[in-house]
């Protein structure tokens, strides 16, 4: 019989389980050079995950605990300029669920993907090139990936879905910005926020949050392909606004596919906008009261503008939904049209499908970005990770908008409040004519209805248009033009 001394007593404490390893930053720092206009741009790249901590809420105080490991790539240029005076651009894409690979390797960073364009998308093997139009000429750059995109993940033991929502995402990125400013001693640098798509929703919300909560001033906000009020673009029963705001985009896409021979894009867009603002609202408002003859005339007018059979428009009750339109425009050719960029098209799997099956613009662009970011991070920046770099992830859904229960999701009020509180804040807005994800007319409408003075609208908000889609930088002339506009904006020209 074994010795009693070898057996634990009943009242002895249970052995402690090993404590999980405390998460820590996982960053690589590399030095680089880029030849620009006869001079050499020297910069340091810092890439990897930053551990973010929070002070817990409760009746008793406890030490801050890690809750997120956010992936970012920072570029800081060696310059004679005082770093405290050099602007810093914090950039992020949207989705929700998209990493910032698109802005990083498509427009802003020192390297860019050669992804091709609508007429000639790139094919493997994909390549990277030096980006001589990089924003690093005029500002330092931080490309940050939202939670569960890129290499960003919750800290071990933290619930990932807690950070998948409007307010949590806003607060997470705002906290990262404060952390970055502290670590890099850049608290007096001019801060610029640059977002694309849902990233513009995020940018407006963060600018307001930084000021409302922390009294941190943003100098500039760049909104690429913005969505500031979801009620203007989401097709929901009883809401006619999206049909009005999408019509000029449909007309522009029709022009791109040869439906308006002999006419310029500007002529077509001007006519469509005039119709969408003046006649179209009254026609839709009448509903079943609209006389049949007027209804038929309206279908003829709309069909001519957007390049489809008027009978299809009439069957759609004069309200063509965007996914249905993108399947209909080139149906005779058995092709579907891109949502992110309406200049793209691809063969239709089902020639009778009511809606597009997939987005040819994403299908034809994403593989080059996927290959490019994975090679660039590992080969050029020395990043090592045991998880997949999530270019775009469905894992962030369902995305919480609980703050907007029973009302439209909107950040126009955040943007207006930031403009009212910060007299030096300026806004640059970039629209792609062929963007069927966030139509330019919806953005024009929201910006024109901001709760700010007319003088502020006219003097502090710049709006530019490009003959491309949502990611206008995949169109080479638009990329160069946009890069020039961004540089001037950041410089304050």
Automatic annotation (TrEMBL):
The keyword Hydrolase applies. The keyword Endoplasmic reticulum does not apply. Signal peptide: none annotated. It holds the Pfam family Peptidase_S10. InterPro entries: AB_hydrolase_fold, Peptidase_S10. One of its GO terms (molecular function) is carboxypeptidase activity. Keywords: Carboxypeptidase, Hydrolase, Protease. Residues 1-25 are annotated as: Disordered. Residues 1-10 have a biased composition (Basic and acidic residues). This is Carboxypeptidase. It comes from Brachybacterium huguangmaarense.
């Amino acid at each position: 019989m074994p010795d009693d001394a070898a057996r634990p007593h009943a009242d002895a404490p249970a052995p402690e389980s090993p404590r999980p390893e405390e998460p820590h930053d996982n960053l690589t720092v590399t030095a680089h050079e880029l030849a620009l206009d006869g001079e050499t741009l020297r910069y340091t790249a810092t890439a990897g995950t930053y551990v973010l901590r929070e002070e817990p809420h409760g009746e008793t105080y406890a030490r801050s605990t890690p809750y997120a490991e956010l992936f970012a790539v920072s570029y800081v240029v060696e310059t004679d300029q005082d770093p405290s005076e050099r602007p810093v651009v914090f950039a992020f894409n949207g989705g929700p669920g998209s990493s910032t690979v698109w802005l990083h390797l498509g427009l802003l960073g020192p390297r860019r993907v050669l992804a091709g364009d609508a007429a000639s998308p790139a094919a493997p093997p994909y390549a990277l090139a030096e980006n001589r139009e990089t924003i690093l000429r005029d500002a330092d750059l931080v490309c940050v990936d939202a939670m569960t995109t890129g290499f960003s993940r919750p800290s071990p033991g933290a619930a990932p879905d807690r950070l998948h929502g409007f307010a949590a995402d806003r607060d997470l990125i705002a906290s990262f910005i404060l952390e970055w400013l502290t670590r890099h001693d850049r608290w007096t640098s001019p801060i610029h926020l640059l977002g694309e798509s849902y990233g513009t929703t995020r940018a407006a919300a963060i600018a307001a949050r930084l000021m409302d909560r922390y009294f941190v001033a943003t100098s500039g906000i760049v909104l690429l392909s913005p969505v500031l009020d979801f009620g203007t673009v989401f097709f929901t029963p009883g809401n006619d606004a999206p049909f009005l705001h999408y019509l000029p985009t449909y007309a522009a896409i029709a022009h791109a596919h040869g439906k308006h021979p002999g006419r310029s894009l500007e002529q077509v867009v001007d006519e469509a906008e005039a119709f969408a603002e003046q006649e179209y609202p009254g026609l839709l408002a009448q509903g079943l009261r609209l006389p049949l003859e007027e209804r038929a005339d309206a279908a003829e007018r709309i069909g001519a503008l957007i390049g489809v059979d008027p009978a299809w428009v009439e069957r759609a009750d004069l309200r063509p939904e965007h996914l249905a339109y993108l399947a209909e425009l080139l149906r005779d050719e058995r092709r579907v049209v891109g949502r992110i960029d309406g200049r793209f098209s691809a063969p239709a799997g089902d020639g009778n499908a009511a809606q597009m099956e997939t987005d040819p613009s994403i299908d034809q662009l994403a593989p080059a970005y996927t290959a490019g970011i994975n090679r660039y991070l590992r080969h050029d920046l020395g990043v090592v990770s045991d998880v997949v770099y999530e270019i775009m992830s469905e894992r962030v859904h369902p995305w919480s908008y609980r703050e907007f229960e029973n009302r439209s999701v909107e950040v126009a009020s955040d943007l207006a409040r930031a403009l009212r509180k910060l007299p030096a804040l300026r806004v640059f807005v970039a629209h792609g004519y062929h963007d069927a994800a966030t139509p330019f007319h919806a953005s024009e409408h929201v910006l024109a209805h901001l709760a700010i003075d007319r003088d502020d609208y006219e003097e502090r908000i710049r709006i530019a248009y490009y003959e491309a889609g949502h990611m206008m930088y995949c169109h080479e002339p638009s990329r160069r033009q946009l890069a020039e506009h961004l540089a001037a904006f950041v410089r304050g020209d």
